[in-house]
């Protein structure tokens, strides 16, 4: 690039523009100054499609805890923090709980739930159905010694049962990494122009599961 620029500047030009290399980089002389302006080619990602469902599942699998929201018998909402026992590749979320807990009674009346997850720069919401699953082999598979705080008799505690959330819809906001930095730049530019900052599917999308 440097040699092409020097060659361009040292030769008389019938045009104020030259194209260098396979990338079609343009070197243009500003008529109002002696400066050379290098214009890099625009790279469009029109052929790339964002797999938003995979992105959502990957984000879910980053979390260890969530809030599980159920409906009460009087039509209200009840939310509580839950440790995630497993988040599967198909988007299902497994929890362990006491079979005598209030949430079990609520789920017997209405299986519709919401699940939310949040960190400093990643956010996920899910809505779907939650089923109570009595499966001792699955409990053995998922068991963690830390759960003895809630189940003193260990994985054979008769009080343990499983919940499986099957999401039907989800939404994510991911402001981590380069995507987050790019959004901050866009947001700053939009603020200066008095416009609304736009996001792309790398940052925010609604997903049908």
TrEMBL record:
Stored Gene3D superfamilies: Electron Transport, Fmn-binding Protein, Chain A (2.30.110.10)
Limits of the General stress protein FMN-binding split barrel domain: 51-196
Superkingdom of the source species: Bacteria
InterPro entries linked to this entry: Split_barrel_FMN-bd, Stress-Dev_Protein, YdaG_split_barrel_FMN-bd
Protein name as it appears in the record: Pyridoxamine 5'-phosphate oxidase family protein
Organism: Rhodopirellula halodulae
Organism lineage: Bacteria, Pseudomonadati, Planctomycetota, Planctomycetia, Pirellulales
């Amino acid at each position: 690039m440097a040699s092409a620029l020097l060659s361009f500047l040292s030769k008389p030009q019938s045009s104020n523009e030259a194209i260098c290399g396979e990338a079609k980089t343009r070197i243009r002389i500003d008529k109002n100054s002696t400066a050379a302006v290098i214009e890099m080619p625009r790279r469009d990602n029109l052929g790339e499609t964002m797999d938003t469902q995979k992105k959502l599942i990957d984000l879910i699998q980053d979390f260890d805890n969530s809030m599980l929201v159920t409906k009460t018998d009087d039509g209200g909402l009840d939310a509580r923090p839950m440790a995630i026992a497993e988040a599967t590749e198909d988007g299902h979320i497994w929890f362990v709980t006491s079979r005598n807990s209030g949430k079990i009674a609520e789920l017997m009346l209405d299986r519709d739930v919401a699940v939310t997850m949040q960190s400093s720069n990643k956010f996920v919401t899910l809505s779907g159905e939650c089923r109570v699953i009595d499966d001792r082999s699955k409990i053995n598979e998922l068991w963690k010694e830390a759960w003895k705080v809630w189940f003193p008799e260990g994985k054979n505690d008769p009080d343990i049962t499983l919940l499986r959330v099957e999401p039907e819809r989800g939404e994510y906001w991911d402001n981590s990494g380069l995507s987050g930095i790019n959004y901050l730049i866009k947001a700053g530019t939009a603020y200066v122009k008095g416009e609304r900052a736009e996001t792309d599917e790398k940052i925010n999308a609604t997903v049908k599961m």
